[in-house]
Write a structure and sequence with these properties.
Number of domains: 1
Largest sheet: none
Strand content: under 5%
CATH class: Mainly Alpha
Radius of gyration: 17 Å
CATH topology: Methane Monooxygenase Hydroxylase, Chain G, domain 1
CATH superfamily: Ribosomal protein S20
Number of strands: 0
CATH architecture: Up-down Bundle
Oligomer: single chain
Number of helices: 3
Shape: elongated
Length: 87
């Protein structure tokens, strides 16, 4: 355990931020899974779910929860699946 006051505060902040980042990543993962299932089932509502997933990925990149290339890769793979459905 940290001894100094500033180290204790840093530890508290790290725990809070880690929890928040984990929640955001979990949400993205769930949205991607849900949209993939809808795409595989050839549902019409898949496009809306993909749009929501892309929006949350963009927000995570903006808040530096995800790296830029990781977000781009996730979006690209998702859009590739959605475009296959359209053909």
């Amino acid at each position: 355990m940290p001894i100094k006051k500033s180290a204790l505060k840093a530890l508290r902040q790290n725990k809070t931020k880690a929890l928040r980042n984990l929640r955001v990543k979990r949400n993205i993962k769930d949205l991607v899974k849900q949209s993939t299932k809808l795409i595989e089932a050839k549902e019409k509502s898949a496009a809306e779910k993909v749009k929501a997933a892309v929006k949350s990925i963009d927000k995570a990149i903006q808040n530096k929860v995800l790296k830029k290339n990781t977000g781009a890769r996730k979006k690209s793979r998702l859009m590739k699946k959605l475009n296959k459905l359209g053909q």
